[in-house]
Amino acid sequence: MEQVIAYVGFMIAAYSVIANDVIQTLGTFLSSNHKKSWQILWAFAGTILAVTMIYGWYTFDGDVSYARLANIPLPEKIQWWYLLAPLTLLIITRFGIPVSTTFMILSVFSTQTLIEKMIVKSVFGYALAVISALLIYLVIAKRFESNSSLEEMDKKKQKKFWMGAQWCSTAFLWSQWLIQDFANIYVFLPRQLGIYELLGSLLVILAIMAYIFKNRGGKIQEIVNQKANTQNIRSATLIDICYALLLYIYGNMNSVPMSTTWTFIGILAGREIAINYLLQKDKLKKAYHLIVKDFAKVNIGLAISIAIAYLIQLLK
Q1: Confidence of residue 200 (pLDDT cuts 50, 70, 90)
Q2: pLDDT of residue 46
Q3: What stretch or stretches form a coiled coil here (predicted)?
């Protein structure tokens, strides 16, 4: 029975984590490639996922989480109440609310000390993302995000270059996100997987991704679509590069899991402030409203995840 609960937990966590977090890494990719077949986009993302997973499994002796679960041991007995976290995340995702899947899933299995470390790392990640994106876009917004510059790109037929650049940046970003968030997906399974467990779980995740890609990201994709120019390939590429570099540099400083959602919302916030300040000041108030709304949503997720963690401790 415990094994059944573990496998069910893995499948629910895999769907809810990928569905909720798809906007971070593949949201701009789906948005700017909306005319392309979803099968092509899925095959591309699935290949990157398979390579990243197998590399981590081989390098870390069967641990696909890249040692993110090293300090989060698998409970000796997994009871039904451990499913409360991924089920709650599943419900929240259906309402299109972006939350930290790291806090929602891992806090149930973690000690209070580790939860505090995750929160501190995530808060600093959000602040760093806002400041970095703000400074970068204050420099490049007029050159790359103005209507005239976007029209100029079309006239100069630079789309092919930027399309290639976007697919490369997406591959880099997707792999870095997976390194951070494989822990959220695999927390229900043994820390060292056998070859059959690896391949079986890979097939499950690829099937989940096919469903999400077929639905173009679902309701939660609206978070990206509301932001300025995200359907433009060049704009999407610049967002992906900023986010990927931040995850690569800051996210890999140590093996403490962090909220990639907070970092992504921070990138969008800093970018939106800079673009509206420089190019469309009349919409600056609306931009602040969207930023506060997004930040409130991720904090709701944090509060819910901590509440669930304490509830499970009581049930124990």
Answers
A1: very high
A2: 94
A3: none
pLDDT band at 63 (very low <50, low <70, confident <90, very high): very high
In the numeric block, the tokens 């069910």 are attached to 8
Instruction: Tell me the backbone φ, ψ of residue 253, rounded to 5 degrees.
Output: -65, -35
Quick check: helix, strand or coil at residue 301? helix
Token look-up 């929160």 returns 119
Say how many Å lie between the first and final Cα of the chain, rounded: 17
Q: Both tokens of residue 137? A: 């876009």
Q: How many residues does the chain have?
A: 316
In total, how many domains does the chain have?
1
Q: Which amino acid is at 8?
A: V
pLDDT in tens, 163-181: 788 889 889 989 998 998 8
What is the model's pTM? Answer: 0.82
DSSP string, 21-82: HHHHHTHHHHHHTTTS-HHHHHHHHHHHHHHHHHHHHHHTTT-TTTTTTTTSPPPSS--GGG
Name residues whose C-beta falls within 8 Å of residue 200's C-beta, 6 or more positions apart in sequence: none
- The domain of 274 spans 2-315
Residue recorded with tokens 């120019």 = 229
